[in-house]
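Researcher: Re-running this chain for the archive, since the previous output was lost when a drive failed. Same request as before.
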Amino acid sequence: MKISIVTIVYNNRETIADAIESVLNQTYPDIEYIIVDGNSNDGTVEVIKSYGSRISKFVSEKDKGLYDAINKGIGLATGEVIGLLHSDDIFFSNETITHVADAFKEFNTDSIYGDLLYVKKDDISKVVRNWVSGCYKRENFLFGWMPPHPSFYLKKACYQKYGLYNTDFKSAADYELMLRYLFKYKISTAYLPEILVRMRVGGKSNVTLKNRVIANNEDNKAWRINGLEPKFYTRFLKPLRKLVQYIK
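Model: Regenerated structure tokens:
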């Protein structure tokens, strides 16, 4: 089973090498590694090019934002399964993709998700939040649940059947896509109960209160455009669920 890993980057010379090394150090033998750069001008491109042919596919050009760049990466992918590793993130271990592949084979599923650690940007050994996903129950979406996007692996056939990321969204296209796939179309999924990714803090939707309000409004939009009806409390429970992730 070939697994395609897509990294999106723009002007992130500081940590892009960590992400690249994290992928290249995986023990799984059949990885296609794709990097989509937004025409960086800070030295990021030079760092990427230094890895030569160890990067399967590399594109550097202007894009229309994060989700447009992700869609480009998916379009370039030839693997049966596609996952994302953003340029600030690293895999939890060198065995991570092996475990993901084993889970796909064991559960014969359309998708896999796991757990996520938020860590300090300048010290990835210091944990800020611990996102333990738990086993999947469709109704949990009504209570504000979602799997961690960086831990979500999906068969390419699902993208081909149900569509890519909706670029009308600024910060919640990941939520909309998972809601669409898992809740609306009821694709199969399985929980891999282990940490898959260390994610440096500073995600776009959480940087400021204003961004959090925008993200919350987009969460509601995700339900509407899919013809779905959330509960009145869904919009309040989704951000509240994050509070338990800070409990050490």
